[in-house]
């Protein structure tokens, strides 16, 4: 099945570019509530499943043993901007595990925003692994390694106990076998396993509701969900989609972006999880898809409506800040969403 | 007609993302030699036609009156990195026209590369309109306005004599009517007119060969072509596709990128021009499409083959610089290209 055009980018009177994609909404029993596009092809979830990758940290008791607070748990689930607050929190997580940034194997990355990069440049510093958008996740992996008594060096390798723990949890949450033939290397050097979108949609329905889980895993999901929605700034940062949406919805939704146009999320009040992939990997389109889905599915207050309206049709501007066009849901996509429920 | 998948991005053993697109190769008589995808929908050419937008500068005598050299003519056709050499050359072009950067209406832009941005930050400077990737084109517009005796303020407006001159030349070169209903605003605030790809492919076949043109226009095309291929660093800069390809091909091809996944080019030895658009606007895919097209169409020496091989399948790396996948032409796209000639 072909992926339909879900998002358009306009310029003046015309559509300039088009983004296709696939999307699944599922409930916690794994039933597909709604789908669009090619949902059979395995998708690398990338950073969209960081919250699932953090489950062993909670279930092992490592999060409590290391005294990680909500902000730190949120950072473990984050693709952050590499702002000072993010880098500093990652350093503290490592300190709590008796480690330093030398232990991180995610590689260095410039902060996402020029103003944060400028602070480093003005201080004559280079970006380090603490600024990598995945540094919180990696600090959590290292904390887990310590509590498991596993070596910290090489914790990114697929055969390391930390990555094995995560793979098993992902298999249980998605209901998919995650094997070497569908394994790629993520940008931060850890394994990423591809699976059909419905597996991830189901996993996030369960993540948001706890339905069908053992008490221990349900509690782990609840703590991570609460940490992210209570500390949305730690999950991304200034000007970021995940932060703005979770901030506005105050606990009603969890959303998380992944590289190459992936989004996953939980909507506990409806019992739904969702997973989507923009075919071409564009984040601008995956964000519009997610915003449109939330706008159609949820009743909103004024603040929530304002945030979603801005994220559903973000403006495209000239370098002088004048409107030149917008990114927006394709009419057929909106019509299809309206048919839900 | 649907756009086929022309480019794939892989990760480990799987294709992670897919880019669709449309492509036309034409000769200078306007005959379509080869096409793929939806070639009927009008495309905003954006910066890919800067060389055509510079024709009035030459034909009016303004380039000679202002004593613009090859490097400056190349900068007039450029989407440059905003490196020191680019910003400085744009300032000199303005000085030659008796103006300063205050006259530029393109808006400010950070240099493309962090190391060039860092130089500004270390000097406690903000980026200005000279660093805008279009500053050379705008300096050329202002030079033309001066020689035409037109006001310099407002030179970006569709009704300004400079933009009217350009619109007429574009109509002649593409064989298309360019009217307000297909006009958008480019990122640098000037009008951009959408037209089918075959119009642009034909225009660049003519640009590269001069066939069918008046002597004055043919000479203008030749001077701009020569300027770009002689000074490819001014057209883009360090690490950039257009610079590397034109540098390696030493006059055999002209290529130019445009925002939202557009590329245009001339291959005079074959009498061909081409124009392509990645449906979703991705530059990474438009570059691979262009490199694949050149690799199939042209006999190459060792250096040319090396540059194209790298640009046809650029590596996707982790933040530690380890290979994670690649961007590459889709097998069906390569097979279709092989069928040419």
Largest sheet of chain A: 8 strands, antiparallel
Poorly predicted runs of chain A: none
Query: Overall 3D geometry of chain A?
Result: globular
Mean pLDDT of chain A: 97
Précis, in short:
The structure is a homodimer of 341-residue chains. With 341 residues, chain A is of the alpha+beta class.
Please, could you describe this protein's structure?
Chains A, B: This is Asparaginase. Chains A, B: It comes from Roseibium aquae. The structure is a homodimer of 341-residue chains. Chain A is α+β, with helices and mostly antiparallel strands and 341 residues long. Chain A has a single domain, classed as Beta-lactamase (3-Layer(aba) Sandwich), CATH 3.40.710. Chain A is 43% helix and 18% strand. Chain A has 15 helices and ten strands. In chain A, strands 1, 2, 3, 6, 7, 8, 9 and 10 form an eight-stranded antiparallel β-sheet that branches. Chain A has a two-stranded antiparallel ribbon with strand order 4-5. In chain A, β2 and β3 form a beta hairpin. In chain A, α4 packs across α10, α9 packs across α10 and α12 packs antiparallel against α14. The two termini of chain A are 24 Å apart. The mean pLDDT of chain A is 97. Chains A and B meet through β2, α6 and β4 of A and β2, α6 and β4 of B.
Comma- or semicolon-separated keywords:
two-stranded antiparallel sheet; eight-stranded antiparallel beta sheet; Beta-lactamase; Asparaginase_II (chains A, B); Asparaginase (chains A, B); 341 residues; homodimer; 43% helix; globular; 10 strands; 15 helices; alpha+beta
Detail the topology: elements first, then pairings.
The structure is a homodimer of 341-residue chains.
Chain A: E1 5-11, E2 14-27, E3 32-36, H1 50-53, H2 55-59, H3 62-65, H4 70-76, H5 84-96, H6 114-122, H7 135-148, H8 161-174, E4 183-185, E5 191-193, H9 197-209, H10 215-230, H11 232-235, H12 241-249, E6 254-258, E7 262-267, E8 272-278, H13 283-297, H14 302-312, E9 315-317, E10 323-329, H15 331-338
Antiparallel strand pairs in A: 1-2, 1-10, 2-3, 2-8, 4-5, 6-7, 7-8, 9-10
Helix pairs in contact in A: 4-7, 4-10, 5-7, 9-10, 12-14, 13-14
Protein name (chains A, B): Asparaginase
Pfam families (chains A, B): Asparaginase_II (PF06089)
């Amino acid at each position: 099945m072909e992926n339909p055009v879900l998002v358009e980018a306009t310029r003046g009177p015309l559509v300039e570019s088009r983004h296709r994609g696939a999307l699944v909404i599922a409930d916690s029993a794994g039933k597909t509530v709604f789908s669009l596009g090619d949902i059979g092809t395995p998708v690398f979830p990338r950073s969209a499943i960081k919250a699932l990758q953090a489950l062993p940290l909670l279930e092992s008791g490592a999060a409590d043993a290391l005294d990680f607070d909500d902000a730190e748990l949120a950072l473990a689930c984050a693709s952050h901007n590499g702002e000072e607050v993010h880098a500093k929190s990652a350093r503290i997580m490592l300190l709590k595990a008796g480690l330093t940034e030398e232990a991180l194997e995610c590689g260095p990355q410039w902060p996402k925003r020029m103003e944060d990069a400028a602070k480093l440049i003005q201080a004559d510093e280079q970006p380090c692994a603490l600024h990598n958008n995945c540094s919180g996740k990696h600090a959590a992996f290292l904390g887990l390694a310590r509590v498991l008594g596993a070596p910290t060096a090489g914790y990114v390798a697929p055969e390391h106990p930390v990555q094995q723990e995560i793979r098993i949890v992902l298999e249980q949450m998605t209901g998919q076998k995650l094997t070497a033939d569908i394994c790629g290397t993520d940008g931060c050097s850890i394994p990423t396993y591809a699976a059909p979108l419905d597996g991830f949609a189901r996993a996030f329905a369960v993540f948001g509701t706890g339905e069908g889980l053992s008490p221990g895993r349900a509690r782990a999901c609840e703590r991570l969900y609460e940490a992210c929605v209570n500390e949305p700034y730690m999950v991304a940062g200034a000007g970021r989609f995940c932060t703005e949406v979770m901030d506005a919805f105050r606990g009603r939704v969890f959303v998380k972006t992944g590289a190459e146009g992936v989004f996953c999320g939980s909507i506990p009040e409806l019992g739904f999880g969702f997973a989507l992939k923009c075919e071409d990997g564009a984040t601008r389109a995956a964000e519009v898809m997610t915003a449109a889905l939330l706008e159609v599915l949820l009743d909103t207050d004024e603040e929530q409506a304002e945030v979603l309206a801005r994220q559903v049709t973000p403006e495209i501007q000239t370098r002088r800040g004048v409107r030149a066009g917008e990114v927006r849901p394709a009419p057929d996509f909106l019509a299809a969403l309206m048919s839900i429920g």
